[in-house]
Amino acid sequence: MTTSTRPPLLMLGRTHGNRSAVTCALKCDNACAAPTPNESTEPTFADVASQALLSRRRLLLAGGTLAAGAALTVGPTALEPAAASGRPPATRTPPAARPGGPLRFDPIASVPDDVDAVTVPAGFGWRPVIRWGDPLFADSPDFDPEHPDADAQERQFGYNNDYTDVIVTDPRGRRALLCCNHEYTNRAIMFPPTSSVAAEAEVLRTLMAAHGFSVVQLERRGRGKPWRYRRGARRNRRITATTVFRLDGPAAGSELLRTAADPSGTRVHGTLGNCSGGTTPWGTVLSGEENFNGYFRADPQAVGSKRYGLTDSPSSYGWEQIDPRFDARSADHANEPHRFGWIVEIDPTDPSSTPRKHTALGRFKHEGANVRVDRENRVVAYLGDDEKFDYLYKFVARDRYRPGRSKAARRHNLGLLSEGDLYVARFEGTRRPGNDNLGTGRWLPLVEDGRSAVEGMSVEEVLVFTRLAADRLGATPMDRCEDVEPSRETGKVYVVCTNNSDRGVKTGKPGADAANPRDANKNGHIIELTETGGAADAQTFAWDLFMVCGDTDQAGTYFAGWDGPVAPISCPDNVAFDSENNLWIATDGQPGSIGRNDGLFRVPLDGPERGHLTQFLAVPVEAETCGPVIHDRDGSVFVAVQHPGEDGDWADQHSAFPDYVPAGARPAPGEWRGPRPAIIQVTRESR
Ligand code: FEO
Ligand code: CA
Ligand code: CA
Question: Which SUPFAM superfamilies match (predicted)?
């Protein structure tokens, strides 16, 4: 028997939205080809559709500047505590933006989508820090894709790195912890075809071991020197699809979370579909379980199946063939899908700690979670549900952040995401007097003061079926919220909506509205949200469109009022800030929308250059830019290069990233020339 190199039910040969067909199938289980899970038909604010944009354009044409002043006057500046990555506490007002900041570079030109290379600015170089399959422990086997081995993969760096942080852990800046999740796998390009059921089962086990999370210690000789990972370091850790997690918070132990194997409803094996994330001020890492539905067969009539995209078809991954818990059609495993779709929290400093899944933050296709602590030490986490026409959420912790490095403070802070209230956003197109460019909105309570705020649903039901609860409240269906990240300098929150080609196109679905201003939105946009009074737990907010992405030749693009040249950009996804409060934007989907490789861009948020977008790097063919980590004062940028050469096959690899053979050289006999997802570091090579 020859087993196909592709799982059997992938719908290849067509693309959905901006991604390749392979990415659609593996990453999100062909979500775009299925009925949109959110069948709610919310008011569309049609009366204000696109008016915010049009109003801005008129102002621009009239010579007005739409820079900071127009939209940045709500509430005092919030001061934020230090990040775990060693940044000093912010004790100042937003910096006057310096063009370029500490990391000055000559922008690169947009790169065509058939280029298999990492492109960086002149004077910069790049190198992989760690690649898929690199051994983490002293006894880890070396990378050998010709011989898939689950035990080996359990002790090697995982596949398809997404959220990434580099947390410096010593005052001299010579040690750091690289924390990174592994979203999904691509069997067709990772391993050769097999010829027996037993051999294919080992491949499936290896793929399970390539999911999850890695903690890897990095070292360097001094500031400005390149980082290298240390094999066998004490804190190195792999978390996979079988590692034990503890469910905590109000829904832990609920009947909705119990299975035959876990009657306590508190112990889950593994984490799946981890997309973006965030690093907390207390030094842990959060990661969002996103497209978990694609791993299960389930009863399509069960509560929530339709809304969460669960079907009774064989899964794309086929894991139900080797582990019955992935077949949720049986009573023993019916609740297993409920145990995924959470925000997970991992303590990278303690390899023996049990990672947790926080039920208080709700269950949906979590993109990630980013925590803000305001000047009163109130703690919130911003959460996006990355599905067409799904919602933006905010969690407000019951307890306040306790500053300091004492054990008591740390213990307290580790519990902050376990109890609190959950809200979903409703954007409104009403105008503020005297400022016709500003929208308002409110956070609609799902759980408030620890009690359900949704009629007819218990707290446990609201948290396990959060989408169903939010549907009842009139939340605003968004254009796929990806990263939602607050600025530590200003407290303003940047809501990244990557795209939604169905808006205003699919029968019965909402058309353009103020916060999602374009029908058939192929290129995405970014919203700038300001909590009323600057308070993290505010129940209302103001918002403005910060960027409406696309090729700059296209009508309707908008770059925060900047009217000079900018880089073309499409499908914004993950974001990060540098030390000067510039926003760095990573993209996912440019090949399908504007025919360019995905990239990393920088844009000032304040000052005269607000909106002046430039491109810093481009990733190789068929790859997505993830991670970004900006250590600009160190002259260093990290990105996670995910799914390079995604559309290839074992016998027809499309990318050799990152181990490119120099021009004219030949691979050594038996040397594997396929792609390896990797974390790369970009540094200045010359001045
Ligand atoms: Fe995994 Fe929302 O991108
Ligand atoms: Ca993403
Ligand atoms: Ca981010």
Answer: Calcium-dependent phosphotriesterase
Residue by residue, DSSP assigns 604-618 as E-SSTTTT--EEEEE
Cis peptide bond prior to 658, omega within 30° of 0: yes
Task: Extract the runs of DSSP E, i.e. beta strands, from 360-416.
Answer: 366-373, 379-385, 388-390, 392-397
Per-chain residues with Cβ under 5 A from ion ligand 2: 275-276, 482, 573
Q: Could you give the strand order of the β-sheet that contains 624-631, starting from the edge strand earlier in sequence?
A: 124-131, 678-684, 636-642, 624-631
Pick the atom of ligand 1 nearest to 276's CA. 1
Contact between 219 and 230 under an 8 Å Cβ cutoff? The reply is yes
Q: What is the pLDDT of residues 168-206, one digit of tens each?
A: 999 999 999 999 999 999 999 999 999 999 999 999 999
Pairing relation of β-strands 439-448 and 366-373? Answer: unpaired
Q: Which two tokens stand for residue 382?
A: 């911003």
Q: What pLDDT, in 10s, does the model give residues 473-505?
A: 999 999 999 999 999 999 999 999 999 999 999
Report which protein residue has its CA nearest ligand 1's atom 3.
275
Q: Which atom, in ligand 1's list, is nearest to the CA of 386?
A: 2
Instruction: Give the C-alpha separation, 52 to 556, whole Å.
Output: 11
Cα 178 from Cα 494, distance rounded (Å): 25
Nearest ligand 1 atom, CA 162? 1
Helix boundaries (H) for 99-178? 150-153
Please tell me what DSSP assigns to residue 109.
P
Distance between Cα 483 and ligand 3 center (Å)? 6
Q: Which SS3 state, helix, strand or coil, does residue 131 take? A: strand
Cα(630) to centroid(ligand 3), Å: 10
Give ion ligand 3 contacts, CB < 5 A: 483, 485, 574
* pLDDT above 70 (res 390): yes
Q: Whose CA is nearest to atom 1 of ligand 1?
A: 275
In the 8-state DSSP scheme, what is residue 624? E
Helix (H, G, I), strand (E, B) or coil at 55: helix
Q: What would the two tokens of residue 188 be?
A: 């067709």
Say how many Å lie between the CA of residue 467 and the centre of ligand 3: 23
Average pLDDT, the chain: 88
Q: Does position 98 have pLDDT exceeding 90, yes or no?
A: no
Q: The whole model's pTM is what?
A: 0.89
